[in-house]
Amino acid sequence: MRFGRGGREVASGRGRRGVVSSGGGRGGTPALEATGLGVRYRHTWALRDCSLSVPAGRVAALVGPNGAGKTTLMHAAVGLLRPARGSVRAAGEVAFVAQDKPLYEGFTVAEMLTFGRRMNHRVDHRWGGRMNGRWDGSAAAARLARLGIPLERKVSALSGGQQAQVAVTLALAVRPDLLVLDEPLANLDPLARHDVMRSIMAEVADRELTVLLSSHVVSDLEETCDWLVVLNGGRSQVSGDIEELLDGHLVLTGPDGASAAGAQVVSASRTGRQVSMLVRGACPPDPRWQARRPGLEELVMGYLRSPEAAALPAPTGVDA
Ligand SMILES: Nc1ncnc2c1ncn2[C@@H]1O[C@H](COP(=O)(O)OP(=O)(O)OP(=O)(O)O)[C@@H](O)[C@H]1O
Predict the structure, then answer these.
(1) Last residue of a domain, one of 194, 209, 241
(2) 38-68 pLDDT, tens per residue?
(3) Rounded distance, CA 196 to CA 305, Å?
(4) Are the C-beta atoms of 63 and 228 separated by less than 8 Å?
(5) Which of 241, 273, 290 is the C-terminal boundary of a domain?
(6) Rounded to two decimals, what is the model's pTM?
(7) Structural domain of residue 281, as residue ranges?
(8) For a designed S-S bond to 96, which of 2, 20, 122, 218 qualifies (C-beta 3.0 to 4.6 A apart)?
(9) What positions belong to coiled-coil segments (predicted)?
C-alpha cells in the first residue's frame, strides 16, 4: 500500500503530446490525466499510446480483460512505474491500495493504523522531503468503529471484506484527493462487495474525492461509478462520462442484410439470421433496425470485442 503524497506528473524523457481534455462538461483540472502514455517491462509494452482523463470528483471504473494494463496504469499514476513514453499526471494527494491489499496478518488493526501513519510520514519524507500532516487517525478509527471492525482484532482474524475495509480506511486516512483502488472487490462475496462500494460512496459524498477503481465485474460498478475507462491490450479505448456514453450509443438488432450504411459500428455479432450491433451516434436509416440504449455491460463488451474501436476525448482545442 502506498500512502498519500503530493500531486505529481511523471513523464518520459521523450517528447510529450498535447493534453487531452477532461470531457464530461464539469471543467476544471482533471484529477488524473494520461497523454500518449507508454509503459514497458523490459521488452514488453504493457501500455501503448494511452490517453485518458478522469475529472475531479468522479468515481471512475477502470475495466478491461486480464493483461489489459489496468495495474500498470495505476502503478504509473501513483508513481511506482516511470513511463517510457508520454506522461501521466495525478493532481493533489494520492492514496493507493494495491491488488493484494498488503496488510500484515500478525498486526492488530490498531497496529496497522500506527504503521500506516509512520509509513505515510516516511514515504512522504522520501518523496517530498516534508512531513505530510494530513494523516487523520481519529477519522480512520471512527470509520472502523462505524464498520464494526474492532481495533484490537488481528488482521488474520478479519474476513476478506473487513480486510478490504481496513485497507481502504488506511488509504483514506491520508485524506487523499485521488484514491486509486486496484480490484478492491476481488474475492469478496456479493454482500461484502456491496458494503465496500457503499462505504466508498459515503466518503465521496462527504468530501471532494476522486476515485479510480478497477474491477472485472461490470455490474458491481453500475450503481456507483459515473466515469468509465476501458483498457484493452495496453490501449485506452474509452474514457468518458457513463451517462453520456450510454446516451451516445445504440444497440441495433435487425435481419441479416439490413443496411448499416452511415452508422459508426463499434462491434457486431450474428445469431442465425439476426444481427446485433453496438453503434456510436444515430441509427442508420434502414427501417428494419430496432434500436435501444445499451446497458453498461453491453457498452463495455462491445468495445472489448473490437480492440481497434475507440471513444476517447478529443485533444484540447478540438471539438468532440
Ligand atoms: N513485472 C512484469 N514484468 C513483465 N511483464 C509484466 C509485468 N507486470 C505485468 N506485465 C505484463 O504487462 C501486461 C499488463 O499487465 P497488468 O498487470 O497491468 O494487466 P491487468 O489489466 O492489471 O491484468 P489483470 O486483470 O489480470 O490484473 C501483461 O501483458 C502482463 O503480462
Answers:
(1) 241
(2) 999 998 999 999 999 999 999 999 999 999 9
(3) 30
(4) yes
(5) 241
(6) 0.86
(7) 248-305
(8) 2
(9) none
